[in-house]
Request: fold
Amino acid sequence: MTSPDIPVLQARGLIKRYGNVIALAGTDLDLMPGEILAVIGDNGAGKSSLIKALSGALVPDDGTITLDGKRVSFGSPIDARDSGIETVYQSLAVAPSLDIASNLFLGRERRRKGILGSVFRILDRDAMRQEARRQLDGLGIMTIQNPGQAVETLSGGQRQAVAVARAAAFGSRVIIMDEPTAALGVRESRAVLDLILHVRDQGLPVILISHNMPHVFEVADRIHIQRLGRRKAILDRANVSMSDAVAIMTGAMEPQDGDR
Amino acid sequence: MTSPDIPVLQARGLIKRYGNVIALAGTDLDLMPGEILAVIGDNGAGKSSLIKALSGALVPDDGTITLDGKRVSFGSPIDARDSGIETVYQSLAVAPSLDIASNLFLGRERRRKGILGSVFRILDRDAMRQEARRQLDGLGIMTIQNPGQAVETLSGGQRQAVAVARAAAFGSRVIIMDEPTAALGVRESRAVLDLILHVRDQGLPVILISHNMPHVFEVADRIHIQRLGRRKAILDRANVSMSDAVAIMTGAMEPQDGDR
Amino acid sequence: MSTTLSTNRPSGGAPSEGDHPHRSPLTRLQHLLHAQATIGPAVVLLLAVIVFSLLSTRFLQPANISLVLQQVAVVGTIAVGQTIIILTAGIDLSCGAIMVLTSIVMAKVSAEHGLPGVLALLLGFLVGAGCGLVNGLLVTRLKLPPFIVTLGTLNVFFALNLWYSGSATIRGTDMPALLLWTGQTFTIGGTRVTYGSIGMVLLVALVAFVLKNTAWGRHIYATGDDAEAARLSGIRTNRVLLSAYGIAGVIYALSAWVLIGRIASASPQAGQLENLDSITAVVIGGTSLFGGRGAVVGSLLGALIVGVFRNGLALARVDVLWQTLAVGVLVIVAVSLDQWIRKVRP
Amino acid sequence: MSTTLSTNRPSGGAPSEGDHPHRSPLTRLQHLLHAQATIGPAVVLLLAVIVFSLLSTRFLQPANISLVLQQVAVVGTIAVGQTIIILTAGIDLSCGAIMVLTSIVMAKVSAEHGLPGVLALLLGFLVGAGCGLVNGLLVTRLKLPPFIVTLGTLNVFFALNLWYSGSATIRGTDMPALLLWTGQTFTIGGTRVTYGSIGMVLLVALVAFVLKNTAWGRHIYATGDDAEAARLSGIRTNRVLLSAYGIAGVIYALSAWVLIGRIASASPQAGQLENLDSITAVVIGGTSLFGGRGAVVGSLLGALIVGVFRNGLALARVDVLWQTLAVGVLVIVAVSLDQWIRKVRP
Amino acid sequence: VGCGNGGSDAGGGGGEVLAGLVTKTDTNPFFVKMKEGAQQAAGSTGMKLQSFAGKQDGDNQSQVDAIENLIGAGAKGILLTPGDSKAIVPSVDKARKAGLLVIALDTQLEPANAADATFATDNFQAGLLIGQWAKAKFAKDGKQAKIALLDLNPNQVSVDVQRDTGFLTGFGVEVKDKKRIGSESDPRVVGHDVTNGAPDGGRTAMENLLQKDAGINLVYTINEPAAAGAYEALKAAGKDKDVVIVSVDGGCPGVRNVKAGVIGATSQQYPLKMAKLGVEAISKFAKDGTKPQNTPGKDFVDTGVTLITDQAISGVDSKDSAWGLDNCWG
Ligand SMILES: Nc1ncnc2c1ncn2[C@@H]1O[C@H](COP(=O)(O)OP(=O)(O)OP(=O)(O)O)[C@@H](O)[C@H]1O
Ligand SMILES: Nc1ncnc2c1ncn2[C@@H]1O[C@H](COP(=O)(O)OP(=O)(O)OP(=O)(O)O)[C@@H](O)[C@H]1O
Ligand SMILES: [Mg+2]
Ligand SMILES: [Mg+2]
Reply:
C-alpha cells in the first residue's frame, strides 16, 4: 500500500497565525513509512500547532498536506481520523465523566446487530467493554481492572494509558503523540516508549513530540527540529549527538547543509 | 539561625486518605539546611500530596510537621507562606487574567505609603511593577518585557518562570517545586535547574519533585524515594546510581538498610 | 523493568463506579439505585414523602399521589429538555417561552384555522424544534454563552407568542380532542391517572435510555464534560449541540401538549416561571450546572420533590407565604443533602 | 547554553495588554478607553445613541439624557453588586429580593416606628449586608453553586419581605426626607439630575477604583479566575467570597435607597425583574459569566444600553410588544458585537 | 373518583367547613386585603380558610394546582380571582362537578356563568366612571385633553383591557375593539405604555410618554401604585400641577393620594366586601346548598364601585376622600 520512498504524511509551507502571534511560519514535515519521527523544539516553537494541523484540529491559514502522496485537507479531527490518523493530544482529550470503554470508542461507537442497531441505533455496550478489555490487555495495561470505570477516577498515568490505547487501537496509517510522557513517572514513561516501538514494529509510522532528549534518542529514527515556527533541520538519529541536536534546537548552532 | 544538624523541615507519619484511596500512608520527610532534596516516585506515589501537606494546601489526617525543630500545623497555604515556605505547585497556581506583577505579589500586595495605604489600602502598583521587573531581571528572565502583561498572554514556559520567580522572590526558609520542568523545553528546563542551584547557593534549602532522572541526578544532594504513600528510601546522590534509584522507586529492588 | 504499560495506585485503585459487563437483573437494579446522580434526590424524595405522610393522612392516598403526578407533569416534561441542555454545559432560559409559543400555535391553527389535531401537533413540534434550533445556531455559530442566547430568545419567543395569539386565551372546547388527550384520564387500580403524567414518565424513561445507550447520548455527556476534548476526540460538537437544542425544543412542544391537556386551554400568559422552575428541578435532581454529569431520572425526582413539597405543605394548610419560603429553603437543603450523600458514599 | 530563564516566541511576544509604569494622563485615558472589557459596550452604546438620535430629535436633548440616567439608576446600582458577584464566578438571583426587603425595612422602621432617617438607612445597610452574608456563607460553607444558593434565598428573602411589609406599600410622605433624598434633583447646566443618578455614577467609579487599586479587588479577580489557584497562591478565597457577597448586599441596600427616592415610596412588589435585568446589564457590559474578566464600568454601560434602547424605542413610538422583542434581539446582538470587537482588536 | 367524595372525611379539621381562596398573586395589597377579609369572615362564620396564590399576574398553572389541592383537601367552596379568566374555566368545571361552590371574585370568568357566582367590581364601569369624571372636568376647565394611558403589561389581560377601554369610553373616545387595548385612533390619545402595576414601572412609562409629547395633561393609570410612580415623573418634569391623574383601586394609600391632590379621582372597589360576601355564600351553601343570586340585569354580583374625588363635578356621582378613607381597604 505504501511505497517506502513516498512519505506517508507530508506537509509543505504550513502557516498559522493567532492575531499577531505566528505559530507556524511556513513549516514542512515528512513522515516516512514505518519510522518514528521525533519532533523537538523550544516551548512555543509550534510543535503542537504543527501536529494539530496534521490531525485536523486546526485549519492552517496556508500550506498543503499530503497523505500517501494525495492531497488532503482536514476540516476537523474527524476527517483526519477517517483517513487513519490517530492523535494523542498534549491535553489528552478524554471525557472524564465517561467510562473507559466509552472513551475508547468515542465518536465511533459500536452499535447492536440487527434492527436494534441499524434503526434504533442502540449501542452494543457489552461488545465495547469486551473490546476495550482486549485492547488494554493487549497493550499490557493490567492495573485497569474495569473498563466500565469513569476516567476521572483514574490516575494521570492511567488516563494517559487510555489515550494512548485509543490511538493504538484505531490508528491505521499514522499515530501522532504530543508529549505523551510529560506527566508520567519513569516506569509509566517506559511503558509508553515500549508501546511506541511496538506500534512501529507493526509497520505504523509514529510522530512523537517530546522535550525529553534521552527518550527521543532512544526511540526516534529521525529527528525533526522545530524552531520559530519552521522546520530548522531534520536529523538522522544515528548521525547526530544529543548535544548537537539541542544546540540546533536552541539556535546555538546552525544545522549542516545535509540536514535541511 | 539554623543548625546544620537539625532538619529545616521535618515530617513524621503523615497520613492522608481520599475516600478509600490512601494518598499518604504515614510518610516521613527530612529536609536539611542548604540542601536540594529530590523527591521521586511513580505516578500516584503521593509526592504531590506530601508537598501539599508541607505547604498547607492540604491538612493531613494524621502526622506531625516541624519547622526548625518547632512543631507547626498549617491550616492553609497562607500559614506556610507566613513561615517562609514557598511552593511552586504542579498546577502552577497563577491567575491568568491578572498581570505578572499582580501575580507575583498575589496575597501580599504592597500598599502606598502614608494614609492612602494604611487607611484607604490603596496598592502601590508602580512599586510592585518595578519590584517585579527587578525580580525577573535578577533571575535573568529577559523575554518578559512588560510586568503589566496579563499572564494568560504568556507561553507555558514564561508562566512557569513567573511561578518560579514568585517562589524565589519570597521564600525565606524553604522552597518547594512540584515538577517545575514537566512542560518545559530543554533550554527552559536548564534555566529552572540553574535557578534551583542559585537559590541553594544562597543558602535556601529546596525540595524538588521530578520524574526526570537526569535532572534529579544533576542537581539533587539527596534523593527521597516515595512509594505507595510512604518514604521508601533516602539516598545520597553521590553513593547511588540512576538505575538503582529507579529500581527502588519501582519496587524492583529493596533499599539497603542504611538508606532507610 | 516492566515492559507493560502499567500504573500503580497505593490503595489498589479507585472504587468501581461503572457497571460490569455481566450481571444479574438484581445487581443491575441495585446499580441503578446507586447510580451516582440519582441516589441523592431519591433519598430526599423519600424523606419528604415520609414527613408529609406523617403530617397528613390524605397525603399518601392514591388520588393525591395521582394529583401530584399531574401537577408536575408540565414542569417535569420541560425538565427533560432542560436536563439535556444542562448536560451539554448549557442552560435554557427560553424553555417556558418556547412551550407557550408552541401551545398557542397548536391551539390556534386547529381552533381558528381548522387544522386537524394531528397536523396541529406536528406543526407545534416543528415550531418547537425551530425555536430550539435558533438557540442552537446562536450558541454554535456565534459562540455565545447559552445563558445569554436564551435570555435574548426568551423575550423574542414570548413577544412572538403575544403577537400571534393577540394575547387571547384559546379555549379547549374549540380544539380537537387530540390536543386535549393528555388531560384525559384512565384508571389503574382504582386511581385515575392522566395520559400526560404517564407521558412524562415514559419520556423520562425513553430519554434516559437514549442518553445511556446511543452514541448521541454519550456525545452529549462528552461535549458537556469538556467540549474541546470532545471535538479533539472526533465528536462533531456543534452538531451535537445543535441537535440537543433542537430535541429540547421538541420536548418543550411535548410539554405544551401536556399543558393544553392539563388546563384544557392555551393561555399566552403561561410559561413565564417554567425556566427557573425547570432549572430548580434539574438541579435538585443532582445534575451539575457545569455539564457532563447528571441524569434525566434525577430531574423527574427533582420535579416530584418540589411538587410533593408544595402539595404536602398545602395539605398541611401552610400559608402561601410560608410555602414560598419553604420552597426556597428546600432548594438549598435538597442540594446540600445530595452533595452530602455523595460524599458519604464509599 | 544560556543560563538565564528565558523563553522564546516566534513572533516576539504577545501584544502588551497592561499598563506601563510611567505614562502621561493622556496615555492613561487612552488605555482606559481601550481597556479590554469596556470598549465593546462603549461602541454598542455609541451606535445605539447615534441610531436613536437619527430616529428622534428629542433623543439627544439633555432632559432626555438625564431621564435615561434616572431610569437606569436602580438597575445600574444593582448591577454594580451583581458585577462583583459575577467576577467571582458567581451569580446572584436574589439581588432584587434583597433590594425590596431592605427598602421595606428602611421605610417601615422610619415611617411606622419613627426611627430617624440615618438610623433607618443604617439598619437597611445592615439588613442588606446580612442577606448578602447569608448567601456568602451558604456558598463558602456548604460549597453550593451560587446559582442554587441565590435561587433558594430569592424565595426566602421575598417571602420575608411580604411578611414584614404585610404587602402594604409605604408612602414617601410618611418617611423622613433623607430616605427620599436620592430622588431630589439639582441642576447642572440647565439640566436636572437626581442625586440617585449621580450616586450610581460615583458608586461605579468608586468600585472600579477599588477593584483595580486594592488587594481586595485583585483577589476578587484572582478568585473568580481560578479559585483553587488563588487559594494555593495564598488568598483566603472563602473570606474574599464572603466579603464579595456582603458588599454586594450593601450595594443592593444602596439601590433600595435609590429606588425609594425614585418612586417616592417603598413597594413590596418591586424588584421581581431586577435579577435578570441586572445580569443582562452585566453581560452586555462585557463581563464574563465564568468569572475573573470584566469591569464594573462595562456594567454601567450595559445598563445604559438597555435604558437607551427602551427609551429610544418608546420615543420612536414602537409598541411595547415589539419593545420586548427588540430587547431580546439587543442582548444577543450587543454581546455578539462585543465579542467581535474584541476579536478585531490587534 | 377520589376527588368528589374527598370532602366527606374532611381532613384533620374536625368537621370544620373548609373554604379556599385563590388569588392572582400574594404580593398585590389588593389581594392581601382580600385574604384578610376572607380570613375574618371565615373566623366569624366558624369556617376554616386556606389561601393560595399565583406567583405573578397571569400565572394560571399555580391556580390550577391550587384548585385541585382544594378539591383534594375536601373544601366546600372556592373563592377565585382568576389570573387567566378563560384558561381556568376547565378547572373550575372540575371543581363544580366535584360538588364545590366556585365563586369568582374581582374578575369574571369567561364565560361569566362558568362560576356559580361572581362578586366583582365592574371593571369597565370603574374605568367608565373616571373617564366620565375626567371628561366633565376638562369640559368645565375648557381644556383640550392629551391623554396618556399607563396599562398593566403587554399581555392584554381582561382587567387591564376593561379598565382601559372603560376609561376611554367614559371620556368619549371611540374605542373600536373593546376587547383590546390600543384599538382607538383618536388624536387626543398620546399613547399607551406598561407599568407592571408598580410605581417604578409607572414612573418610567410616564417619563417616556412625556418625552413623546410634553403636552400630556390627563393620565389614566391601571392602579394607584402606578399612579404614584407617574406622579413622581410629572413632579420631576415640573408638570404635577397641570396634569390630572385618574386611577382605579381605592386602596388607603391611593385615597390619601386623592386627598393630597396627587390623584384627581379614583374608582374605589371593595375587596373586603367581595371576600366577605364570598365566604358567607360558601357558608350558606355548606349549610343548605343555596347559591347566591346575581345582581339584577348583570351576570355577576356587583360589589360596587364608587368614584372618589375631592373635586366633585355635578352630573357625576362621587364621594369625597374622607368618605373614601372610611371605606378604603389597606
Ligand atoms: N489558541 C491559541 N491562541 C493564541 N496563540 C496560540 C494558540 N495556540 C498556540 N498559540 C501560540 O502559538 C505559538 C506556538 O504554540 P504551540 O503550542 O504550537 O507550541 P509548542 O511548540 O507545542 O510548545 P510547547 O512545547 O510549550 O508545547 C505559541 O507562541 C503559542 O502562544
Ligand atoms: N483530590 C483528590 N481526590 C481523590 N484522590 C486524590 C486526590 N488527590 C490525589 N488523589 C489520589 O492520591 C494518590 C496520590 O496522588 P498524588 O497527586 O499525591 O501523586 P503524585 O505522586 O504527585 O503523582 P504524579 O507523579 O502523577 O503527580 C493518587 O492515587 C491520587 O489519585
Ligand atoms: Mg505543545
Ligand atoms: Mg504530582
Q: What stands out?
A: Residues 9-96+156-259 of chain A form a domain with the Rossmann fold fold (CATH 3.40.50.300). Residues B 47-48, 90, 178 surround magnesium ion (ligand 4) (CB under 6 Å). Chain A has nine helices and ten strands.
